Each structure stands twice: as C-alpha cells, then as structure tokens.
Amino acid sequence: MISKKKLLQAVSVSALSAVLAIGALTNAATVNAQAGINELTGLATTAPENQRPIAVMIDNDKRANPHYGLSEADVVYEMINSTHNNRVTRLMAVYKDYNSVSRIGNIRSTRPTNIMLAAEYNAVLIHDGGPFYIYPYFDATGLNHLSGGFSRIPNGKPREFTEYCTAGEAASRMAKAGYPSAYTAYEGQHYTFGANSLADDAGVAVATTVSVPFPHNSTQFVYNAATGTYDYYEFGSPVVDGDDKQQVTFTNVFLQDCDFTLLDKNGYMVYNCIGTNVGYYLTGGMVIPVTWLKTSYTGATKFYTLDGAELVVNPGKTYIALVPSDAWGQVGIK
C-alpha cells in the first residue's frame, strides 16, 4: 500500500499549476462542448451542447428506497449526511439530459458540501431546504437552486419520502426563477475522456469488489464483467432503479479521502473538499491510487495519477464517494 505522503508528493508542480489556472477561470459563457457529446460522460447525447446540468439531492435512507432516476444520472455523489444516525449517507445525482428522465428522487435537503460540488458543474441544485449553515455557501458560490415545491407522489410512506422531480418540472421551475438553461460560468472540463485500461499505471491492482465505509448504508460495488461496469449495492442488496427497474451501475468509481469539520452537536458537518488528498480510481475491474485537488468553492475537482499527469477517464457514468478520513483505512478493495 502506498502511503498518503508519497501519493501527495506524486502531484507534480506542473499539474498543480494547471489546476490553479483552471480555478482562476470564471464567468466563461460557454462550455465549448463537442456537439452531440455529453461533457459529463463522454457519451452521445441529444441534449443541447451548452445545456447546464441539474444536481438533485436524493434521500439514501432505507425507507426512501427505491431510488427513482438514479440509473439515468451521469454522475452520482455519495457522502455522509451527518455524524449521527450511524453516518447515514445522502446522494447527489447530476444530469445533463434531465428533460428525458421521467422521475427523480425522492428529493431531500442539501448540505454545504453539496453546494460546493454542484457549483463545479454550474448546475442548478434541486433540494428541499437544509440547515442554516447552507446559506453562506450559496452566497460564496452564487449557485442557482430550487428548494421544495416539486411533485408529491403518494407511495404509502411518510411525507418526507414523497417529493420527486418529474419530467419537465426542472425546466419550467428554472424558467420561472429566471435561471438560464445554458451554462452561465464554466471552470474547466471535469474529466479528460479516453480509453484507459490502467495497465500501465503505477500501483495498479485487480478490483472486483469494493466496500465503502459508510456503516449505515453498507455501500458496495461488484464488478460486472459482462457489462464492464461496477454494480451498486446498499443494505446488502443490488440498487435497482424504481423507474426503469435497471441495476444502477457505473463505468468509473472514485473514492476520495476527505476529512470534515463538525459544525454542531447535532452532527451537521462540512467536508473539507477544497484542498488536496489521496484517493482511488476504479474502472474495468482494476484500481489505481490517485490524488485529487480542488482549489476554490466553484473550481472543478481534478484527479491525477502517481506521475502527476491528469487522469484519463473512461467514457461512461461516474460514482464519487467522499470517504471521511477517519474511516479511510476501512476501504476494502479486492
């Protein structure tokens, strides 16, 4: 196992300089995306090339299952929502072509970390409230967001598990709020897409099963050789989308070692996601150690190989877990 110190030293001065330059680019009007290609996945899309994404806060309590629209997300973040309740996690799903998704949710409240991450994409954040700690982060990022008032769909569960964003709602709510559907700022491409077997990377190892130390949810991934993707498991069972009944699966899995600051005795916290630390990148049944770097509230998180080069990411859907540093040693990869 390569130490954190050596991993951090592996980020070259040139790589750091490049990312700092990216972080300084603000208020660019267009994404300069390739027509017909989703800049979040590197795959084909029918969405307008400059259409900004939405980021939706999705409950991850077992009572909220099944998730709707999760299999259609381009990028999914998972992180602990609180240090209470056995560190229950919450999801944030990012969609480029959101108008094609019939139902997303159920929707829950946001946290400060989600605001900083959604701002990386110039996304419109969809949530239902949150603790008062969120407001300075909205001010700092200037993030457009829509809170509450989405469709309530009876499902036999308590009211907090019944709110969903249905097809067309995001677009109509954005228009009503005066939020542009096109990018208003862009801080640099998140990923450099290309074929990458990881075979030539330092520290490469086989990775067919992954255990993420989220104790409440027991998050796991199992490599599916038939699809070449990592199937998502929680609570000991496959995560199957409630809408299209498909297994939720990802081409790319990132694990970030990220410490946090506790905000109060109620367990509210914020990840210290501006900075640099170590991580893992899994794809194609293999894993390599990486480093990550985020330079500002809105700057894109970038990933680097051990030689300091920016990581080449396989086209496809991506999962990112922010693993608390105090649990990083419990990550299991086999």
A few lines on this structure:
The protein has helices at residues 4-9, 13-23, 112-120, 135-141, 169-177, and strands at 54-59, 75-80, 89-95, 103-105, 124-127, 145-147, 151-152, 163-166, 192-193, 205-206, 209-211, 220-224, 229-234, 237-238, 249-250, 252-258, 260-262, 269-271, 275-283, 286-294, 302-304, 312-313, 318-324, 332-333.
What does this structure look like?
- The chain is of the alpha+beta class.
- It folds into 2 domains: 4-26 and 190-333, YerB-like fold, CATH 3.50.90.10; 54-177, YerB-like (YerB-like fold), CATH 3.50.90.10.
- Helices cover 13% and strands 31% of the residues.
- The chain contains 5 helices and 24 strands.
- The strands form 5 sheets. Strands 1, 2, 3, 5, 6, 10, 16, 19, 20, 21 and 23 form an 11-stranded mixed β-sheet that branches. Strands 11, 12, 13, 14, 15 and 24 form a 6-stranded antiparallel β-sheet that branches.
- A hairpin with a 4-residue loop joins strand 12 (220-224) and strand 13 (229-234).
- Helix 3 (112-120) packs parallel to helix 4.
- The longest helix is centred in the first third of the chain and has 11 residues, at 13-23.
- The two termini are 13 Å apart.
- The relative contact order is 0.21.
Short descriptors:
about 325 residues, alpha+beta, YerB-like fold, 2 domains, eleven-stranded mixed beta sheet, six-stranded antiparallel beta sheet, 5 helices, globular, YerB-like_sf, signal
